[in-house]
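Re: your question about WD repeat domain 60

S., sorry for the slow reply, the queue was backed up all week. Below is exactly what I fed in.
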Amino acid sequence: MLVPPPASLSMVTTALLCSQGLISHGTRQDLRVSPKLYKPQQHDVRPVRVNVIDFSPFGEPVFLAGCSDGSIRLHQLTSECPLLQWNDSTEGHAVTCLRWSLTRPAVFLAQDETSCIYIWDLLESDLGPVAKQLISPDRLVAMTVVGEAEKTSGSFLALVLARASGSVDIQYLRRAWVAPVRDELRRLQRLLQEAL
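Result:
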């Protein structure tokens, strides 16, 4: 007869996984899933935590993971290792928020612990962010993306920024990061296939 491990052992295992940059994959129905873990590109054990995860809102089976060492990973649900990983995109500052664009499949935004926001457009560059903005002097504590995903023309995308003082700002993004690009989803799928 198998005896389940005590809850404290399970919590230790989970904490160990989180502190090594691993993401555990499971289901609520106790079905077998593959892969069981999502790992960083590095095979050595490193003291890094996965701080945030965001899944693509466009039906693509991919998600982003932002880590305490400033790395950002793009994972496919069916693969243990990331399709793409950026190690120095935030100059080593912990990633505290990640959000996919609601209007463009190849665009996402990241926030780091220094209140800096990074904009990524994978069709423009898959090497790093295409824009960076420091939010100061009032420290940024949270960020989210709002917009009109259902509109193909005339849509908007805005950042809602919560600051340490309690104020909330809304900043609209440039049209180039909002308006869908011709065949964008297909071009993104091709980029992801090439990354395999």
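Helices lie at 7-19, 184-195. Residues 1-17 have pLDDT under 50 and may be disordered.

Happy to talk it through on Thursday.
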